[in-house]
Write a structure and sequence with these properties.
Strands 1, 2, 3, 4, 5, 6, 7, 8, 9, 10, 11, 12, 13 and 14 form a 14-stranded antiparallel β-sheet that branches. The protein has 305 residues and is of the alpha+beta class. Mean pLDDT is 80; it is low at 238-305. Helix content is 21%, strand content 47%. It has one domain (3-304). The protein contains eight helices and 14 strands. The chain has helices at residues 3-6, 15-24, 108-120, 236-239, 242-249, 251-254, 265-268, 288-304, and strands at residues 30-43, 49-59, 64-74, 77-86, 89-96, 99-105, 135-141, 144-151, 154-162, 168-180, 183-199, 202-212, 219-234, 270-271. The chain is globular and about 55 Å long. The longest helix has 17 residues, at 288-304.
Length: 305
């Protein structure tokens, strides 16, 4: 029997994926939307690392997102960057004050790159990583599996690697579209995740890093942390129905919500280092069904504001 065969369960789902989903998600819970506030550093070529602040809104089914960031150059001067994935299209643009610095829209290369990003960042909305009509898993070995995501006429694949604790540690691909000047070239890409915390019944990483280059030689260009998170919870039917279309229309206005509408991580996120993290069997302690119900209700109320 091959390593691949022994890495699959009876239902065909890789064992490492099943373990991760059992650790990171709560049964019956579906994340239909997500809004994140991020801080960190972005490497701007010869200018080196510069601090950034960003807000990202995500719609999970179908895959959609909008990322708006301010990358500080000097006090009072910042580059504004927006990346987005929409229905059958994607775009990226950068502006300094009102002057455009770079812009690209549409095209299979850009859409595929945006879909790969959506899939890699699904560790922040992990119920999306459950197998579905659009997402399939293939076992590689005991601690890695390939995810295949289909959206419209586009298909992307990423390798997910899991740590000894069962959580996603690294996501990579040998070929992701990278804009160089006015054209796109394909290059190895990877994302690394850590500092997992509980929030609203899901276990998500608060720290991440993205890099271009082959394994062992990849050079980071983005490193950040989640400052606040807001989840829109629902049922599977809602995730694939009109409820989601309403949420999608709210993605743009959501970016203009006051910061106070975001849940503070100090109050909502619990570290896996917390003694209360594990129960007497050594499994993650989600605080019981009553606690989960209160957290889910809080998330729905927050998202409705």
């Amino acid at each position: 029997m091959s390593d691949t065969e022994t890495s699959r369960g009876a239902d065909g789902l890789p064992r490492c994926v099943r373990r991760y989903l059992s650790l990171a998600t709560t049964r019956g819970q579906v994340i239909v939307g997500c809004r994140l506030r991020q801080r960190g550093e972005f490497r701007l070529g010869p200018l080196g690392w510069r601090r950034f602040e960003a807000t990202q809104s995500i719609h999970t089914r179908p895959p959609r997102f909008s990322w708006d960031a301010r990358i500080r150059l000097v006090p009072g001067v910042a580059i504004r960057v927006r990346d987005a994935l929409g229905e059958g299209t994607a775009m990226t643009e950068a502006r300094l004050f009102r002057a455009p610095l770079a812009r690209a829209a549409g095209g299979a290369d850009l859409i595929s790159g945006a879909l790969q990003r959506f899939l890699a960042e699904a560790v922040w909305y992990p119920t999306t990583l459950r197998p579905s009509r659009s997402l399939r898993w293939s076992a590689i070995d005991a601690r890695s599996a390939e995810a295949r995501l289909v959206d419209g006429g586009h298909t992307v694949r990423l390798l997910f690697e899991f740590g000894g604790d069962g959580l996603v540690e690294r996501v990579s691909t040998p070929a992701r579209a990278r804009q160089v000047g006015k054209r796109f070239v394909y290059a190895p890409w990877e994302g690394r995740f850590g500092a997992y915390h509980w929030w609203n019944g899901v276990l998500i990483p608060r720290r991440a890093e993205a890099a271009w280059g082959p394994p062992g030689e990849a050079e980071p260009y983005w490193r950040g942390r989640i400052e606040a998170a807001e989840l829109e919870l629902g049922t599977l039917g809602e995730a694939e129905g009109t409820f989601n279309l309403r949420l999608l229309r709210q993605l743009g206005p959501a970016l203009r919500r006051p910061r106070s509408s975001l849940a503070r991580p100090t109050a909502e996120l619990r570290s896996t280092d917390d003694p209360a993290y594990a129960d007497e069997r050594g499994r993650p302690n989600r605080g019981g069904s009553e606690s989960r119900t209160k957290r889910s209700s809080s998330a729905r109320t927050e998202a409705a504001r």
